[in-house]
Structure formats: C-alpha cells, structure tokens
Amino acid sequence: MELTLNTEQDMIRLGQIIGKKLHGGLFIALFGDLGAGKTTLVKGIAEYFRIDHIQSPTFTIVREYDAHGIRLCHFDAYRLGDSDELYAIGFDDYLTDDSVIIMEWPQNVLDALPNDRLNISLNGSGNEPRYVSIEPIGAKHSEFYGNIIKELSL
After folding, report:
1. Does residue 17 sit within a domain?
2. How many other CB atoms are there within 10 angstroms of residue 89's CB atom?
C-alpha cells in the first residue's frame, strides 16, 4: 500500500490508526531519511494511547512506554554501527516478550530484524508531502496490515 500524506496531522492520523490496531508481539520497522516523519508517526501511535512525551531515542537507543497494558519500545538505530551493538543492550529480550517494538533507522541493523514484521518506508522532508509505503512480512503482520487497511478505507 502506498499513501500520500500532505500534512504533519496526516502522519499523526496514520499513527493513531496504527495505534488503534496494535497488540503485543508486533515489530514495526520505520525506514526513511532525516526529517521524513518517523518520530511524528510514532507520536501519532503514542497519541492513541494518550502518551504525550514521545522523544526520539537517538542517544539512549530505546525508550519504553506503558501503552495501557502494552509495553511500547521505541528504538532508534541511527547511531548503531552494527547489530552487535543492538544485541549488547539486550535486544534479544525485547524480541521474546510481548512488547510492541517500533524501530527507526532499521537499515543500520537489518540482520537483527525479525522475519515477521511491518515495514513502513517514508519519503519526503520539510514542507513536501510524505510518500508512505507499508509492507507486511510474515503471517502475523499480514493480518495486522489487513486491519490497518480496513481502518484506512472507512
């Protein structure tokens, strides 16, 4: 699926739709250059759960939030040189529990990404529209993707 989002509020709304359908054990990989809207999308997801203090975890690598019973783990792999650095902070533990993991800059640690995930690619910056491509990989995320599609078509 490909979308064109013209405003920051459109990105927030997409995040809210994704948030509405989230459940434990999901992995969302956010691809895009600086300024493409990755953190804004995460803010929209968090806004659905009434979490209003989302910050990019660039320097801390991961921030955790309680999303009304769902553990939301927001990773930023921008500063990581390779997946060994990610595993050094206990990434395996995050993958084995029932958390929702949202990762910015996953291209820096591709070999660490689970085979079952939702890839979201964002293109554009500044005042330009954002072009969003959403691709499910694996059965669990295909079902999640289908729920998002239904919500978008309402």
Report:
1. yes
2. 14
